[in-house]
Amino acid sequence: MDADVRSQLLEEASEYLKAEEDDVVFNLAFDAACETVAAAVGKFDENSARMKLALFLIMQQLYDNRSILETKNNEKISCIARTILLQLQLENYSEDEDD
Q1: InterPro entries of this UniProt entry (predicted)?
Q2: Do 11 and 18 form a contact (C-beta atoms < 8 A)?
Q3: Could you give the CA distance from residue 55 to residue 30 in angstroms, rounded to a whole number?
Q4: What is the mean pLDDT of residues 66-79?
Q5: Quick one: CA dihedral 6, 10, 13, 15, positive or negative?
Q6: Phi, psi at 67, each rounded to 5°
Q7: 80 Cβ partners below 8 Å, 6+ apart?
Q8: Which of 40, 61, 77, 94 could disulfide-link to 85, CB 3.0 to 4.6 Å?
Q9: Distance CA 67, CA 65 (A)
Q10: Ramachandran angles phi, psi of 42, nearest 5°
């Protein structure tokens, strides 16, 4: 991911999470979420609203819940993130098959 895209996504994520961009944990959560999305779908499309949302949801989980235990509400967010990532995986797989 180039520096301009990273900067833009960090700014958007900061607004979404209402967190400071210069926070070490925030940046770690951003990097981990980017890797998670990229590993799940194969490539990151910064123009995809669902990919951005998946990134922000994963970031929110990592940033807000720094515990190994999950509560009922967190499970719902995880389910949303899993659903979005699964959709993106299936779409990416079918696009690769068409090539």
Answers
A1: Phage_HK97_gp6-like
A2: no
A3: 8
A4: 61
A5: negative
A6: -130, 155
A7: 57
A8: 40
A9: 5
A10: 95, -35
